[in-house]
Amino acid sequence: WRFDTGSGVMATPAVADGRLVIGTVDGQLYCFGTTGS
Predict the structure, then answer these.
(1) Residues of the domain holding 28
(2) Which residue pairs, CB below 8 angstroms and at least 24 apart, start in 4-12?
(3) How many domains does the chain divide into?
(4) CA distance 37 to 20
(5) Which residues, other chains included, contact 22 with Cβ-Cβ below 8 Å and sequence gap of 6+?
(6) Model pTM greater than 0.85?
(7) What torsion, rounded to 10 degrees, do the Cα atoms 33, 30, 3, 10 define?
(8) Angle at 36 between CA 34 and CA 37, to 5 degrees
């Protein structure tokens, strides 16, 4: 799957408790489950 953050991701994504966590350069934090939602 793909997800457009609208901004650059400048750090390594983290995985915790089966979730993917991504921070972007514009200060947003995204958390995804295994289904991509």
Answers:
(1) 1-37
(2) 5/30
(3) 1
(4) 10
(5) 5, 9, 13, 14, 29, 30, 31, 32
(6) no
(7) -130
(8) 105
